[in-house]
Structure prediction request, 330 residues.
Amino acid sequence: MALVSTTSIVLFFLLFINTSHIIIAELPRFEHKRNGEDGSLSFLVVGDWGRRGEYNQSRVAHQMGIIGEELDIDFVISTGDNFYDNGLTGEKDPAFFESFSNIYTANSLQKQWYSVLGNHDYRGDVEAQLSPYLRQIDNRWLCLRSFIVNTEMVEIFFVDTSPFVREYFDIPNEHSYDWRGVLPVKRYINKLLSDLKTSLKKSTATWKIVVGHHAIRSVGHHGDTQELVHHLLPILQANDVDLYINGHDHCLEHISDDKSDIQFLTSGAGSKAWRGDVEEVNKDGVKFFYDGQGFMSVQFLETEVGIVFYDVSGQVVHRWSTSKQPLAAS
Prediction:
């Protein structure tokens, strides 16, 4: 089982004790050794899934297990909204077992899961999802606000996007959110963007990926997230990011940026999907849209990347690939 190193886990414990009252100096960083003898890297991406197996979550999980074995994946990425409808109630909430441990049981999925928080997760006890205690229950689980996973060839930057969305802070609000560790939000966002910008500039990886819950570009139910278009996208464009991966919209989609080589990839169809819910505005760059359940695989070689979207039956519904030369050694 290829999990993160012991050193990284100790770092995780130290950095995330009492996160309500400290500001982390920089983005936590985890080193992940690749499985592939040929130097390749493979992983699955699923989002918006935690429904105790309902709404075809179990069927998607079954197909993930099959594809995960075929690809000999290194890990799984969750794009958030890990537990519906309102996150976890605490560290011992049975939803953790009922929606995660007891659902993703295939041998191929017994790998590290790297997860970000979604807006539904913020409606519960956020500190519970971030707690090292959950790793004692299921050592696959690693959920942080923002962090970096480095595989040398590929560097993945996970970003906490919910605090960017202004409507979640409206008073009165239909929902309540656990903003411990986030307030004051302006300072939180400014520091996160600064840390991300610095980390992206320092990166020497051939491929750079940014993962967040909310879409920058989407033609699904929520559409583009304007706060991310304004604050986050310019940083990605200026730092040669290759892929931005998200959930939030319960669909699968692929959109190309019109000002850079960034590909926007939505994998938010891990359980409940929104059939026929398509935003008609800003369809520029749309390569693919699917309004059913499913997930995504990503495979990297030194000079190539391949993206495949699968439906709930494991059928391929979209493929895309590209190549680039690795960065010259300085």
